[in-house]
């Protein structure tokens, strides 16, 4: 890999419509900051592209000059793979338009759009697709890894709503990939991450959702955690796809509906959204309100766009983050005991354990139908190590790792690629699972020199 030379910079400056940002520029530090403040990479040049032509040009420049290349869309990836040290970062954050065709029920989305951008446009027509739970996340990275959130049980993974992509491949050419054109590539980008090229436009199917949805939080004291989680695991076996209920264990934030004495103490939070008839939702969720004696609840009709932002205050950019994740078929006694043990020793007020409920429509797709392979997962467990000061790094990282290791015996072995840290290269095979070999063959066809490798990388089969 070569360093960034004046030739490279002049070539980009003379050919791009967008901005070329260099280390001495006043906006360089802003341009290289991403969601996870642990990441402190310094690209040699940032090409903030304005359109597909810019992306094609930037890829050709990277290829001709043999440059290290990274791709940034929403900048949320925990591993910091959006940036690279000393190379060329192709920054798509300015390409963030979302165009909705309400009659065809389709969304045409540029890669820099966030989930909030998408929901804002789609909800103007009472439409949505299955995305994630934090509105500042990028659509691009989320969709390319699989994508799940409140609508996943009803409408499947984000990739299951993908109809077509425009993609710039390693030769700098623009292709369409869908069921009819470059179908192998289309299969690969639905869960294979960023290894195959740079997606410059996503075409998604849309569904009617909201505009208001029954949703909310039901909060319990931590000392009832064992009974609560035992009831939760049985209850979720009985609920229909319209309903999703997740469990979050952490110290209580100062939410206005919680008594002040609860703030800062460990709690079990059940967060839910029902994407169907309101009365039916009320009766379906009622058992969760009677798992024990809640210390507070905030349940009601909320605009879908507001609920999609419900967790934003807990997931703001700028904190230091170290996450680990496991897939689970079931919440066994051992898994529950391990969660409870580690929530009892949270090293910072922001550390938390998230249990996301999967299943439903996401699991009715065959494992080889898309590159996202984990169609038998019922829970994704995420440990969010999160804190503010660098001097807490060791303690918070150790807590996250210790919890992850202790929970491993109860997990399935697979992992959601979008929740992996930079150091987890040994888990890449587990992330792509049974689809890895097919992905490697497609990689060999479209990117034999592995130009796109600053990601949870699929190596070309040789
Ligand atoms: C606070 C938070 C909440 C989250 N919640 C959820 C959730 O509810 N559900 C869920 O499924 N995931 C969730 N995630 C994980 C999320 O899906 C990943 O972090 C994802 O990578 C974010 O995409 P991005 O575009 O913002 O990332 P970026 O950091 O910009 O990109 C990540 C990587 O994706 C690839 N990439 C990005 N754009 C392109 C492109 N246009 N073409 C080709 N490759 C590209 C590149 O390899 C890049 O390094 C969450 C993450 C965070 C930090």
What is the topological layout?
Layout: H1 6-15, E1 19-21, H2 28-31, E2 45-48, H3 52-64, E3 69-72, E4 88-91, E5 98-101, E6 106-109, H4 115-123, E7 127-128, H5 139-145, H6 152-155, E8 162-168, E9 174-178, H7 183-189, E10 198-205, E11 207-208, E12 212-221, H8 225-235, E13 243-251, E14 266-274, H9 278-289, E15 296-303, H10 304-307, E16 320-328, H11 333-343, E17 352-357, E18 379-387, H12 393-407, H13 428-432, H14 436-446
Parallel strand pairs: 2-4, 3-4
Antiparallel strand pairs: 1-2, 5-6, 6-10, 7-11, 8-9, 8-10, 12-14, 12-15, 13-14, 13-17, 16-18, 17-18
Flavin-adenine dinucleotide is lined by residues 35, 70-78, 81-82, 92, 111, 132-134, 137-138, 140-142, 144-145, 147-149, 193-194, 198-199, 315, 418, 455.
Describe the structure.
- It is a single chain.
- With 462 residues, the chain is of the alpha+beta class.
- 27% of the residues lie in helices and 23% in strands.
- It has 14 helices and 18 strands.
- The strands form four sheets. The chain has a seven-stranded antiparallel sheet with strand order 15-12-14-13-17-18-16.
- Strand 8 and strand 9 form a beta hairpin.
- Helix 1 packs antiparallel against helix 3, helix 8 crosses helix 11 and helix 11 packs antiparallel against helix 12.
- The longest helix is centred in the C-terminal third of the chain and has 15 residues.
- It is globular and about 65 Å long.
- The two termini are 21 Å apart.
- Flavin-adenine dinucleotide binds next to strand 3, helix 5 and strand 10.
